Amino acid sequence: MINDYIFILKAVCHTLTQTSSHQVLICRNYKGDVDMSEIDHFFTLLMQQEEEGLLCPVMSHGNVHFLWIKHSNLYLVATTNKNSNASLVYSFLYKLVEVFTEYFKELEEESIQDNFVVVYELLDELMDFGFPQTTDSKILQEYITQQGNKLEVAKTKVPTTVTNAVSWRSEGIRYKKNEVFIDVIESINVLVNANGSVMSSDIVGSIKLKTMLSGMPELRLGLNDRMLFALTGRDKGKTVTMEDVKFHQCVRLSRFESDRTISFIPPDGESELMSYRINTHVKPLIWIESVIEKFSHSRVEIMVKAKGQFKKQSVANNVEIRVPVPSDADSPKFKTSTGHAKYVPEKNLVVWSIKSFPGGKELLMRAHFCLPSVENHETEGRPPITVKFEIPYFTVSGIQVRYMKIIEKSGYQALPWVRYITQSGGELQLLIQTRNSVKLACGPSDVCL
């Protein structure tokens, strides 16, 4: 990958005109093959595309290409006049955001202006002559700090990790007690239509480590990977097929490709070892049924029934069921079998919070609202119900850590600990359109709050 310039610019909103001012906050010239004034053409192209309503991540002016991302109120732009690998350029730009965020907590215009000396130091270390160099923030923090006096001392002594083959781990690490904590975290994304049919579902997983190991240990991780079992002729028991696998740089990819062994020297402390996706049919772990009962010119009642469709010995924690309501609803009243419900008028939602939801259990919530414009309210296009939750000690895919071997020349014994967590994918784990029934009056059999 070859970059000529890296620019960090103040974000330009879509209402800018050709005469509007723009500001380059900071830039770094790595090769000098592109004139700095070319950045003016980036804003012109950006405004043209905003007017057309179609933004392209790569824009060109003559033989100069602009590859850019937007973060907060900033644009990060890489320029090149070569046939560069675009995916690598974008990986580097997002890595810039990650490193700057870890240094400054929030990456925005003010943090760049207040820390421009550190930003230049980081840009010089992250890339050299257009090629990525040291991109691990933990290593960078060993010799680039936000204290000026430490910067002067660091210039006389560069950490060996910068020139090491193992650039992500320092030498001489010592712990009294050697341990490895492994978290297998899976997020479920499920889309369900109004008829109860699953329209799409997938599992996005990650394996995170917290290593507290002395020396330079080599770790070998074994999973119930279907391809591994097929290679060894032991295709027995439950196995999983992982797709879109992404590893930390510490993993020996050649070893994984040859015999599916995950072998690596781990970073010290917390890190994400790998991420993966499993494209499989998944039933909603928390099933939602909703009925809206409308009473003419007066009120609306919403009944929501939630059922845990997972093992009884498991428990979903911090469950939030978000039910959309009309924008003009008022005078809310609630009745729940478990947990508590509250009305969030600024988001037109009822949020039903359940601290602990055992598997196999069925819970009920009823909400009552006054609704002056009930007969004019459109039911079509109603926002979907969404569910958030977390289930510890459970994986829906069935992935398992079969073994963790820790090899270190001193021969010490280390303890591996494994934890499994399943959670909703963001806030849109389960989407169900409500079913509606309209009543003209409240009869004897109706349950009114």
Main attributes of the structure:
single chain; 449 residues; alpha+beta; Beta-Lactamase; Immunoglobulin-like; 3 domains; 10-stranded mixed beta sheet; 5-stranded antiparallel beta sheet; 25 strands; 40% strand; disordered C terminus; cytoplasmic vesicle
Report the CATH C-level class of the largest domain: Alpha Beta
Q: Regions with pLDDT < 50 over 5+ consecutive residues?
A: 12-21, 148-156, 427-449
- The overall average pLDDT, rounded, is 81
Largest sheet: 10 strands, mixed
Query: In DSSP terms, counting alpha (H) and pi (I) runs of 4 or more, how many helices?
Result: 8
Overall geometry comes to globular
In whole angstroms, how far apart are the ends?
A: 65 Å
Total domain units: 3
**Secondary-structure-derived class:** alpha+beta
Question: Approximately what portion of the residues adopt beta-strand conformation?
Answer: 35-45%
How many beta-strand segments? 25
**What is the CATH architecture term of the largest domain?**
2-Layer Sandwich
Q: From the alpha-carbon coordinates, what is the Rg to the nearest angstrom?
A: 27 Å
CATH level-3 fold name of the largest domain? Beta-Lactamase
Oligomer: single chain
